[in-house]
Amino acid sequence: MFKNGILRCVVRAQSMKSFSTSCEANSKVAVLGASGGIGQPLSLLLKESPMISQLSLYDIAHTPGVAADLSHIETRANVTGHMGPDQLGEALQGCDVVLIPAGVPRKPGMTRDDLFNTNASIVRDLCKAAAETCPDAMLGIITNPVNSTVPIASEIYKKAGCYNPSKIFGVTTLDVVRANTFVSQIKGLDVSATSVPVIGGHAGVTIIPLLSQATPAVTFPQADLEALTVRIQNAGTEVVEAKAGAGSATLSMAYAAARFCFSLLAAIEGKEGVIECAYVKSDLTESSYFANPILLGVKNGLEKNLGFGTLSDYEQQLVKDAMAELKSSIKKGEDFVA
C-alpha cells in the first residue's frame, strides 16, 4: 500500500529512457497486430530497445513489409514478420513477452463496449495460440475493451491449464501517461518528474486518477478537480473526435505500451523496484479485476500488488461509482468464453 505518493509509479521516466537505452538483454517479444495503427509505432519503439534481441511481428496482412522496413534500422533486435493463422505459432515460439494490440479502433460515437464483439473474438483466438505455444510468457493486453478482454484472456488460459494471474496484464499505462501530462501542463511542472497513479479500469468512469497522491503534491478546487478527472476519463474520446473518423489513440497508446513492456523486461532481468499501474486479477475491491500500482519482478511478472493507499472522499466515491460497470464488463468477458 502507499500513501501521499511515497510509493508510486516511480519508474515512468526510466522505463522509456534508462531502461530502453542502458539495459541489454536477450528477450523475445511478440506484437500481435503489428501492422495496425498501434502495432506499427509500438514495433518501432520496441526495435530501438537493446533489451530485445528478437522482435516477432504478427498480423493477418502486411506484416512482411512492416518487418522488412523495421529490419533496416541499426539496432540489435532481429525482426521477423509472420502473416496469417498458419504462421501464428511460429511467431509466438519462445517468447518472453506477448503484446496484443490487435483489433478494430474506435470511431466517433463508439464506446469501447461497441468494439466488444469483434475484438473479443480476436483476443480469444490469439490467447489460445499463446497459451498453447508460449504459456509462460508475460501477456500484455492492449485491445479494447480491456475491462473485458483481460478476463477473456484469463478464461482462455484457465481452459488451457496454464493460467497464472501474475503474468496477465491489462495495459492501462496510457491513463497514467495522460494524467501525468495534463497535471504537469496545468501546474507548470516538469512532466518527467510528475507521477499520478490511476486505478480502476480502462474505460470511462472506471478510470480513477488519484490526484490526491500525485507527485509532486498538487491541489485543485473541487470544480477543477472534477473537470480534470472527467478529462482524463474521456481522453480517448477526445482523440477519437479530434481524428474525425480517422482512428483512435495510436501513437500515445504505442508509447504507453512500450513503456510498460520496457518496465516488464527490466524487472525480468532483475532490476528492483519497478512499479507500473496495470489492470490485473485482484481481491482488493468488489471487482475481481482492478488496476493499481504493482511491483514487477523476475519470476512472476506481478511480484506484489501494492494496492491504492488512502483515498480522498471524492476518490472513494469514484471507486464506488465504477463498481457496477467494472463487474458488468468482467462478466461479459467471462461469459463470452464460457
TrEMBL record:
GO terms for cellular component: cytoplasm; mitochondrion. One of its GO terms (biological process) is malate metabolic process. It catalyses: (S)-malate + NAD(+) = oxaloacetate + NADH + H(+). PROSITE patterns: MDH. Keywords: NAD, Oxidoreductase, Tricarboxylic acid cycle. Its EC number is 1.1.1.37. Gene3D superfamilies: Lactate dehydrogenase/glycoside hydrolase, family 4, C-terminal (3.90.110.10), NAD(P)-binding Rossmann-like Domain (3.40.50.720). It is an enzyme of class 1 (oxidoreductase). The active site is at residue 202. Substrate binds at residues 106, 112, 144, 178. NAD(+) binds at residues 33-39, 59, 119, 142-144, 253. Residues 28-170 form the Lactate/malate dehydrogenase N-terminal domain. Residues 172-337 form the Lactate/malate dehydrogenase C-terminal domain. CDD domains: MDH_glyoxysomal_mitochondrial (cd01337). One of its GO terms (molecular function) is L-malate dehydrogenase (NAD+) activity. Homodimer. Belongs to the LDH/MDH superfamily. MDH type 1 family. This is Malate dehydrogenase.
